[in-house]
Design brief:
Blueprint lengths: L12 E4 L1 H5 L9 H13 L4 E6 L12 H7 L7 E5 L3 H9 L4 E7 L2 H8 L3 H17 L3 E7 L12 H13 L4 E6 L6 H13 L7 E5 L6 H10 L4 E4 L19 H10 L8 H14 L7 H12 L2
Parallel strand pairs: 1-2, 1-8, 2-3, 3-4, 4-5, 5-6, 6-7, 7-8
Bound molecules: coenzyme A and zinc ion (ZN).
The site of coenzyme A has 21 residues, from helix 4 and helix 5.
Length: 310
Amino acid sequence: MSNPYASFPKRVTICEVGPRDGLQNEASSVPAADKVRYIEMLVDAGVLVIEATSFVSPAAVPQLADADDVFPAIHKRAGVRYIALVPNERGLDRALAAGVTEIAVFTAASETFAQRNIRMSIDASLATFAAVIKRAHANGMQVRASVSTAFGCPFEGTVPVGNVVRVAQALLDAGADTLSIADTIGVATPNQVIDVVSALREAGIGLERFGLHFHDTRGTGLANIMAGLQLGVHEYDSSAGGLGGCPFAPGATGNVATEDVLYLLHGMGIETGIDIDRLRDASRFIDGVLNGRVVSRAYRALEAAATRGA
Ligand code: COA
Ligand code: ZN
């Protein structure tokens, strides 16, 4: 029998979103110095792409209001992409002042979520981001663009695949270099991943242009990554320890955990360049700061093995 996994990518890029998607949803506030240490520990583990923070309204996300202090304080490692979210021109001003070289803009595939999250219609956000992307590029920045609620909306329910393709294409037309297609609330099942990825590919969007972002709210995170691998997608967002969620998406829990993803990928012989034990060290550090919020199952297994002296 032929190996059904033979066509899987040999190497996958993990975009670590713990410091941003993870910490934005935590009730307790994390001191700026601990955020910096956390980011540096994740990069020490081998993470090459990391969402470090957000330059959004401090009223919208108070947890990341210290972005202006955190971002410049990170000791940057050559070859690592440190990404910061920017929702508007004001955010871009702040990001430029902080020395950011890659931003992430973000809109949604559903109208109600766009309104709740960024207080703009989808079309207004596309117009805003077209200008932001242009100025970011003029300043030598790279731009990643996220399409939230691509697999379901907490307010509208089902999201037509055509909406995802329209918004993704519009962001690329506006100049975005790469895309992250996000299951913000963790409702996707693998057949939907096949549908969305196939539709993006049929619209002419290459595998080098987009990654996938899953939340594990209903336990389908890894299954969805398997579906993505089957279609050759080689970039995934995940958060160390499985922290995370969106304050504007009721009921959403954490991102699929980086440790769980690494365990799956490495077990299948797929390289990531990340050392799972050192990544676990970063999760252990932030778990201490947050008083026990890490939920990753692979993390718990690693910690149990360490306790047994295994
Ligand atoms: N950085 C800091 N402050 C900002 C800002 C930014 N990027 N953008 C707006 N503000 C401030 C304004 O200065 C204004 O302050 P004031 O009340 O003291 O005058 C206030 O926020 C409201 O500004 P306005 O332009 O009217 O924004 P808004 O209230 O329509 O909110 C966003 C729009 C996009 C700024 C806000 O919804 C936001 O930051 N959303 C991000 C949500 C997020 O990060 N979600 C998770 C990621 S998926
Ligand atoms: Zn998310």
